[in-house]
Structures are given as C-alpha cells and as structure tokens.
Amino acid sequence: MTDATHDARAGRLQAGLKARYAREGRFKLYGVLAVCIAVGFLLLLLGRIVTQGYTAFYAHEITLPVYMDPARIDRAYPQGTNFELLVAEQQLARYGIKDDARGTRATAMRGLFSSELKFRAAALIRENPALIGQTVTIAAPAADESDLFYKGEISIETPADQRRLSDEQIGWLNRLKADGAVRTHFNGALFTNGDSTEPELAGVLGAVIGSALMLLVTACIAIPIGVGAAVYLEEFSARNRLTDLIEVNINNLAAVPSIVYGLLGVAVFINWAHLPRSSPLVGGLVLGLMALPTIIIATRSSLKAVPPSIREAALAMGASRTQTVFQHVLPLAMPGVMTGTIISMAHALGETAPLLLIGMVSFVPGIPHALNEPTGALPSLVYIWENASERAFHERTAAAIMVLLAFMIVMNAAAIVLRRRFERRW
Amino acid sequence: MIWIFLPILILLSALAFVAGGRLSTRRAQASGLKAHSRPVQHGLYAMIWVGVPALVILLLAGIFSGPVAYHALAAGAPAEVNALETFKREAFFDDARRVGQGQQPQQIWLAPLSEQLVVEGHRSAQVRQTLTTGAAIAALVAAVMGGLFVALQIKPALRARNRVEGWIGGLLFACSAVAILTTVGIVFSLVFDSLRFFQSVPVTEFLFGLKWSPQIAIRADQVGSSGAFGAVPLFAGTFLIMIIAMCVAAPVGLFSAIYLSEYASRTSRAVVKPVLEILAGVPTVVYGFFAALTVGPAFRVFFNTIGSWLVGGPLDGVGQYLMLVQNQMALVAGAVMGIMLIPFVSSLSDDIINSVPQSLRDGSYAMGATKSETVKRVLLPAALPGISGALLLAMSRAIGETMIVTMAAGLAAKLTLNPLDTVTTVTVQIVTLLTGDQEFDSPKTLAAFGLGLTLFLVTLVLNIVAQKIVQTYREQYD
C-alpha cells in the first residue's frame, strides 16, 4: 500500500466522518423529538383538561329577598307553589320593569335562577309556616347559563343569536352583581350530588359510589381467582396440553378488545342470567373477567421472581408443596401481586366501552345503595356529560375527568409505594 | 335473595372448623395414638365438607334461579302474555317481578295486561319464594350431611392434610379453568347471536355488501329505512383510522424506545419512563374527550383556514372542500388513537431492543460504527421480528379501541379513504346498535354480535400471530 492511496483513503474517511456524525446527530434528534412529542401531548392533554375544568370547582349563588305572598302560597301544600315565578315577578317589580301579558320577561328572569330555588323556598315554608306573609332572603344557585356569564364564558360581544342569554338578561345579571346579590363559592354540589339534568345541580358522587361498588365486585372476583390461577399455573401444574391451552388462552384474553367483554356481558349476564341491567353487579362481573388475565400475568411474574432456593429450603424441612407455596412463596411474592392487582384495578376503573353496552349510558339520578340497582360509573358519566348539549356540562366533564384521574393517580401511587417499600431483589 | 343464607353458611363452616379440630384432638387422646395430621388440618377438612357442597348449591341456585324462574313463569303464563313479542314479554315479566316485590312497574300496561300483571306478580313472588326456600333447605341439608360425614371420618389415622391439599389443588385448577370458561363464554355468546343474525342476513352480504344502514322500518309503510347490512364501509373506516393511528404511533413510539434504550441517561430515563406510563394509564374516555373537544375543533379551524386561503386561487375546489371540513373526521380519531398507542409501542419495543445481546452492540462499536449506525444496521435488523410483533399488537389494539372513535369519528358509514371525511368503525357501530332501545330479535341488535364476532376473530388472529413472532424471537436470544 503506498502512502498516496493511504492518504486518499484517510481523506475519504475524514470527509465521510463528518457526514456520519451529522447523521448520528440527526438520528439522536429524532429520538429526542419523539420523546418530546409524547411528553408534550401528555402535558397538552392534562393542561387542556385543567384549563377546561377548573371553573367547574366554583359556582355562583344569587341571594334574593322573597316576600312569601300569602295569596300565592298554599299553606297545606307549599311545595306546589311556583316560587320561581313569584321571585321573578318580585324581582321585575323591584327593577320597575313592566311585563307583557304573556309573562315573557318573568320567564326570562326565572331562567336566571336554578330550580333549586323552588325546593329551598318550599323547605323553608314547610319548616316554619309562620314565614308566610314575611320577607325572607333565599340563596339559590345561579342557573347554568348565568353561572357561565359570571365566569366570563358568555360575553355581551357575541352576537345575540349565538348565545343563550338575551341582552336584557345580561343586563339583569350585571345589575344583580352590582347590587351585591351574587356570591362566588366552592362548588360543593359537584361532590355531594348525584347526576342531574340541570348542570348546576349535577354532581359526581353517584358515579363515584357506583364505580366503587363496581370495583368492589371486580376485586372480589378477579383477585382470588386470578391469584389462584397464577399459583396453579406457576407452582402446581405439570406442563401438558391442558396447561398449554390455558396459557395461550390467558395471553389471548389479555388482548381481546374490551368491547367484546361488553358483548359477553350483554349476552350472558343480562340476556341469559337476567341480572339487572346497568347494575354494579353486572359491571363488576364484566370488569372482573377483563382484569383477570392482567392479574394472572402480574402474579405469575412475581411468583417467578421468588428464587427456587426458598422453595427447596421449605421442602427440605418437610413442608408439603401446598405449605411451601402458601406459607413461603406467596407471602414473599405478595408486594408484586399487590402492585399488579392495584394497577389492573386502576385500569378497570377507567374502562368505559363494556359499561356502555351493559346499559350504563342511561341517566341515573341520585346516589346508588345496592349492587343490583341501576347506577352510573365515573367513566360513563364522562361520556354522558360530554354528549350533553348544555355548555355548562363541558367544564363539568373536565372536572369529572379530574376526579377520575385523581383516583387513578392515588391507586397508581399506592402501587408505586408498595413496590418501593416491599419489593426485594434476590 | 338467596345470598342472605351466605352468612349462616360462613358461621356453620367456622363452627365446623373449630369442632373438627377439637374432635380430632379428643379422639387422638382417647385412642392414645398420634394423629397423622394437625388439628388445624382436621378442622379445615371439616370446614370443606360442611361449606363446599352447600356453597355449590347456593351458587348454582344463584346463577340458575333467574332463568329457571323466568321459564317457570313463561310456562304458566296466560295466553295474552304469551302472545306478546319476546321483547315485550320479557319486559312484562320484569315488571311482574317488580310488582311481586312490592315495587312500581316500569311501564304502563293496558287493560287485560294490567290485571294480569298483579296476578303474575303474585305468581312470580311465589315461584321465587319456592326457589329460594328450596335452595336454602337443600344447602342446609348438604351442610348437615357433610358435617355428619366428617364427624364419622375424623380419626387419628385420617390423612386430613393430604385431602385438604387435594381440595386446594382442585380449587386452584378451577380458578385457572375460569380463563377457558371466559373464552368459551365469549365465543358462545358471539357465535350464538351471530348465527341468529346470519339467518336473516346472508354472510356474503354482511362481509361484502357496500351499504350499511341498520335502521329497519318499524311500521310496514315506513319509507327510507330498508336496512342494509353490508359491513365493508365499517371495515374500511376501521382500517383507515388504524392506518392513521399507526402512522403516528409507530415512528414516535419506535424512536422514543430507541432513544430511551440507547441514548438516554439514567436521569432522563427516570423522568420519561413514568411519563409514558402515565400516558398509558389515561383512560380512553379521556382521550375521547380530548379528541372531541380539543383536537377536533383545532383541526377544523386549521383546515378551514387553509381552505379560505386557497379559495379563489388555482386550487379553488380543494379550498371549497377544506372550508366545509367538520369536527368529526377520521384524522382526529386516528391521530389521538396514535397518541394513545405511543406508550404501548414504545414499552414493547424498548423490551425487545433491550433483549438484543450486548455482544452485538459491542461488536458493532468495535468496528468503528457510530451509535446510530449500530441501531440501524445491527439492532433494528436483529429486533425486527419482535418489533413487527409489537406493531401487530398495536394494530389489534387500534382496531378494538372504542371510546376515542365513538366520541370523535362519527356515525356515517362511508366508503372512503379520505382522512378528512367522517367515517365510522366496527366498534362505534356495536356501541350505537346496542345502546339504543333494545329489541333482541331484530337484525339491528343482532348485527352488533355479528360485528363483534368479526372483531374478535380479526384481533385474535393478529394477537396469535404477533405473540408467536415475539415468542420465537425471544427464544432466539435466550
């Protein structure tokens, strides 16, 4: 090899090196970009939900003096009184506005308050009938549109045909605010009420309890059966056709789309076994079957992590196979089992599609008490509210998502803490 | 109602546990022999014989009392009720049960039925009462018989431990058999109702028909809703959204996996990995909300703006079209589904890239290759089968995903490959068909099971192929 060719080759390599390093830099940049996209989307997703939803955590309340007109209130049946109209007319009179014969203005005024006003007024009268004939101040939540106006989400600048509040109503709302009748407060109703058709009264408590009942059923079914199956497959079974079949089965079940489990629930639990539709019982059963493969897989991997020396030591001391497993191997594998279980429960909590099929799309007011009553669930509530036409439900949907995510974060954090504290590396 | 007896049974079993243990000690002392098993094991043996047969009876009663009661009611029902359509009849018996339990019926029934509702309600309550008492007595008898059997058996020579362990082994096997039962249940429920569907709609029309409009005329004179069950537009829509999702998820997921396994420092791994895990843990309904209220409107505004620039120019037609783009388009659902799949693709590929032996990397570096050259020329070819398996699994997920498409893709069944059009998918149609008013005999609801069966089979094939690939790949380097 002569020097000349060597130099030429070195020169070529040198020139190529620059291009190669540039390619290297670009390749690394693609990687960084990919990670940035993933992280960026997570931030965007969470950021959007918080910005859309934080307004749902406060609400406005309008306090008004109400003259309990004896001519309008039936002493024997106070809840039959149209308190909303009464209040609206008095408010119009206070503003010195004349109504037309059809009561258009009174109806418009009435639309500013929640129908809760009626129930509060009726409750006051029922408690103390002596109030009839006196003037009482009553605080009631603002109606959903008025609330949105006070939150600055409806503006007078929008053309009148694109908003639900008329110019006149906006004028009244401004006047109410100027009079100091409007108070901002923490929206407790969101956490203490069940679902409602009126956004200002709708809350997530019913759905939270429904989800909790459902997870209870899921846990009762999936955890014992899943751990039992994993213990059998990992510690007891001889390798034969049947166990191979079971294993293939479990791997496939883990990847079956969740909506297929919903179809199973409809066909087997509802149409064949006649279990009550949209009940936590059916929901829990379906989610339990769905969570089963994940729990089995997690349990098996943590059983695998327990070293054979433990088993051999126990067997050498004269313990039977069952005693070895239940007194030594399983307790040592427990942190891993718990972690896997909690994560799969968190997953089950967020699952929606099968719940829609077993009937949890229907409107269920109130708070559920029993496993066989129709209830809602948190994820299906998100779906229902997202589909609602009232704009005020949008912010509440985001708030419901925050509640759902909060529960999932708590569960996942518990799993991480368990893993950190109790996991043993052998 | 039968579950009221469960606490009684638990109490009986607990008693049997204590009594069995005591009995074995006493008999051992009396005979002066050393017992083969410990008292605890005798106690467990007694508990099993008292509890299990009775529990099985209660379980069977719990599972079958619904159908049995229904058939008993249907068999003795008056002619008017039996003349009703299946769906109405079921609703009638449901209400009869409610009346029998002293609740309000859910529907208003007309004259002859309203009187029979009370009679049938009474009968329903009676049938249920008989079933419940029968099951409870049977369970009690079983518990007592079991107790007597054990009381005779317990003696020092009884190998109680081995027997108890035999029971435990059987129980654990039963647990793992639940997995098979679930599969059987899925296949059974899908196939059974699909067959009923294919009786009214031929399979060929379902698989190859080009028109999907499941609305069926309720009255004979109704116009415009003939009901067509050609599922090709649904398959096309599903496929389109899946392709878009994979276009997002495959490169981003794969590159982030490469970055995490080859380039990232320990600290950045410690930050990014949990972030990806959070992204994987976000429920799909949240992604659906994000798609419907954030991504959809943003994309619409984007395309409408581009359209407004193009209108009047040489691309006037395109501009006009872009101006009319709606919130619900395949692109939105596909893109958001792609984001959802990023962590899935990334974590699977990460595992696979990590399982490529270090010696291959070292060899490549020793030859003077840069990191990216090593990845491109050595790691990726070596990991290719595994990665393709991971991508197949991601595809199967994309096909089966429901909430994002339900909330963001739309309902119109169109045969199009235009990502800006609204399309519908198999899963969306299953949800729409089964969440309205249900009539379980009409092809409309049964079609959902036909779609479900197709979905199940397609994902099953994808999963089996993918798992086979991943498995053979893993074995290659083990």
Quick gist of this model?
Chain A has 426 residues and is mainly α. Chain A contains 16 helices and 3 strands. In chain B, strands 1-2 form a two-stranded antiparallel sheet.
Walk me through this protein's architecture.
The complex is a heterodimer of chains A (426) and B (478). Chain A contains 16 helices and 3 strands. With 426 residues, chain A is mainly alpha-helical. Chain A has a 3-stranded antiparallel β-sheet. Chain A is flat. The two termini of chain A are 57 Å apart. The mean pLDDT of chain A is 87. Chain B has 478 residues and is mainly alpha-helical. Chain B has 3 domains: 2-158, no CATH class; 161-200; 228-477, MetI-like (MetI-like fold). Chain B contains 17 helices and 2 strands. Chain B has helices at 5-31, 39-75, 79-82, 86-100, 111-153, 160-200, 203-208, 232-263, 266-281, 284-310, 316-323, 330-354, 358-366, 371-400, 403-408, 426-435, 443-477, and strands spanning 212-213, 228-229. A two-stranded antiparallel sheet of chain B has the order 1-2. At the A-B interface, helix 1, helix 8, helix 9, helix 10 and helix 11 of A face helix 2, helix 6, helix 8, helix 9 and helix 10 of B.
Tell me about the biggest sheet of chain A?
3 strands, antiparallel
Q: What is the name of the CATH superfamily of the largest domain in chain B?
A: MetI-like
Radius of gyration of chain B: 31 Å
Q: What's the CATH topology name of the largest domain in chain A? A: MetI-like fold
Give me the strand/helix succession of chain A.
HEHHHEHHEHHHHHHHHHH
| Average pLDDT figure of chain B | 85
Strand order of the largest sheet of chain B: 1-2
**From the coordinates shown, what is the CATH architecture of the largest domain in chain A?**
Orthogonal Bundle
Helix-strand pattern of chain B, N to C?
HHHHHHHEEHHHHHHHHHH
Chain pair sharing the greatest interface: A-B, 93 and 94 residues
> Please, what is the average pLDDT of chain A?
87
Domains of chain B, number: 3
Helical percent range of chain A? 55-70%
Q: End-to-end distance of chain A, in Å?
A: 57 Å
Supply Rg of chain A. 32 Å
Content of β-strand of chain A: 5-15%
CATH superfamily of the largest domain in chain A: MetI-like
Low-confidence stretches of chain A: none
